[in-house]
Specification:
Elements lengths: L1 H11 L8 H17 L6 H10 L6 H10 L7 H24 L2
Length: about 100
């Protein structure tokens, strides 16, 4: 029963606007690791797919770029998270710049 609950929690997760990529991906990875210890493998590929389909719309351009430049069936979670964190960092720097500019 516990495995089913973990898988259900994994499937229902969506990144909140207030969360960072790191916070969200850490939660997903933690659930996947718990499921693995109970004998259910949530593969890297499944984690990558979950991350990409459960992000807010502001990440659409980065997701499209990853889809166009990488083989998503072979990409590692860390590569996806790194690309998304870079996007997040650029967005935050632009926001800070526009705040300071006013």
């Amino acid at each position: 029963m516990k495995v089913l609950n973990l898988v259900r929690e994994f499937e229902r997760m969506q990144m909140k606007d207030s969360e960072s990529i790191k916070e969200y991906s850490d939660k997903l990875i933690e659930i996947a690791n718990k499921a693995r210890t109970l004998g259910t493998d949530l593969s890297d590929n499944r984690l990558v797919q979950k991350i990409l389909v459960s992000l807010p719309e502001r990440y659409e351009a980065t997701i499209a770029s990853l889809e166009n430049t990488k083989d998503l069936s072979k990409i590692k979670v860390i590569e996806v998270v790194s690309a998304l964190q870079a996007h997040e960092q650029r967005r935050l720097m632009r926001q800070e710049g526009s705040i300071e500019g006013h």
